[in-house]
Design a protein that fits this description.
Shape: globular
Number of helices: 14
Number of strands: 0
Helix content: 55-70%
Structural class: mainly alpha
Amino acid sequence: MKLTPEALNIELLSLTDEKYRKFSSALTPGTENILGVRLPVLRKLAKEIAKEDWKTYLKTAHDNSFEEIMLQGMVIGLVKIGLEERLALIKGFIPKINTWGLCDSFCTGLKFTKNHKEEVWLFLQSYLQSSETYEIRFGVVMIICYYVELDYMKPIFKAFDDIDHDDYYVKMAVAWAIASCYTKFPDITMIYLNDNTLDRFTFNKALQKITESRQVDQDQKIMIRSMKRKV
């Protein structure tokens, strides 16, 4: 497959699914230029690109559609390169993230993190402390994907307390992350739930996410619901 942007666009158009386009558009209101290519299809295409001249692809790729941008992120996660080079590519890609779907898909593809926990943790700090919606969400979703471990609980909770941003997608990511912590480390997370600086919306959403988990028993859910903050 030729890796010119034009050829890639033709390829993507041939893989579109109208029903999926409508579904994706409904999940990400306000997002423009969604073609409707399913994720497994994009992942297969990304694997093909990662085996070829991916550097030329990333340098020349267009950002005209949701899928074109998502594909770039998938390739960055797949290529076989050193840590510093990959972190540089990630840094260059993050400004292109403008939806929660792009953010979360990108994070799940950065599996190299499992072998470079400390280095990536340091890399994430500037994003967790950012004032930009999707920079913060990137940092929080990376925590969910790779850092819900005992050694990271204390710095994770400090990071959540330090986040001060009013965007819905930031608050929901933090709530999701806290719920993930609770399902794995309920006792430690309960200590945090009883002593934190979270805003009321984020705190209550975290409780809601916990009670929606199948990994939490009914007695725990009753207790969690009783902690809801009133206006």
